[in-house]
């Protein structure tokens, strides 16, 4: 297993990206219950701190251990506040690896999402040796669509995930030589 994400912090100009761990349970609880997460990503039924810890143990850590990458907690260098998450995910029903992100509402509109996602995009190709990454979003999520285009993703049509009738826009980005 290639595991640079599990043992390494990655930095941008303003941010630290650290593999999400159980110590991030409070962030996960808050993030997964924000109005935009519930509207655009879906209800993960995480209602308590214990639910959040279990979500991390059962959904996040197994992928990190299996693939060597997954969810990263976005931390602002200036004050060490946790802003949200960004990651590379192996989603059931989606071929390939998916770039996903979410910020707490108070951290939106400040460029943190682009900064973190752009770093993950670079890591996907350079560190994790992926040839292509994907991203999905609902049509109503205008901010997410704009971010994906700014990152260089190309629209590929629509898709649906298993056991979900939601039509998702599918974007792809291939590694350039």
From TrEMBL:
<dbReference type="InterPro" id="IPR051531">
    <property type="entry name" value="N-acetyltransferase"/>
</dbReference>
<dbReference type="Pfam" id="PF13302">
    <property type="entry name" value="Acetyltransf_3"/>
</dbReference>
<dbReference type="InterPro" id="IPR000182">
    <property type="entry name" value="GNAT_dom"/>
</dbReference>
<dbReference type="InterPro" id="IPR016181">
    <property type="entry name" value="Acyl_CoA_acyltransferase"/>
</dbReference>
<feature type="domain" description="N-acetyltransferase">
    <location>
        <begin position="15"/>
        <end position="174"/>
    </location>
</feature>
<protein>
    <submittedName>
        <fullName>GNAT family N-acetyltransferase</fullName>
    </submittedName>
</protein>
């Amino acid at each position: 297993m290639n595991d640079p994400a599990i043992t390494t912090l990655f930095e941008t100009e303003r941010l630290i990206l650290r593999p999400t761990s159980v110590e991030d349970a409070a962030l996960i609880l808050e993030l997964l219950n924000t109005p935009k997460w519930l509207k655009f990503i879906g209800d993960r039924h995480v209602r308590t701190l214990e639910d959040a810890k279990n979500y991390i143990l059962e959904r996040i850590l197994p992928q990190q251990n299996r693939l060597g990458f997954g969810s990263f907690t976005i931390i602002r260098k200036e004050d060490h506040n946790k802003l949200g998450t960004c990651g590379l995910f192996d989603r059931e029903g989606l071929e390939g690896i998916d770039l996903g992100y979410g910020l707490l509402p108070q951290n939106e509109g400040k460029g943190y999402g682009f900064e973190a996602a752009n770093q993950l995009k670079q890591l996907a190709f350079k560190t994790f040796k992926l040839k292509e990454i994907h991203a999905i979003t609902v049509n109503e999520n205008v901010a997410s669509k704009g971010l994906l285009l700014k990152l260089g993703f190309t629209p590929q049509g629509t898709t649906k995930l298993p056991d979900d009738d939601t039509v998702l826009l599918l974007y792809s980005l291939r590694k350039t030589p």
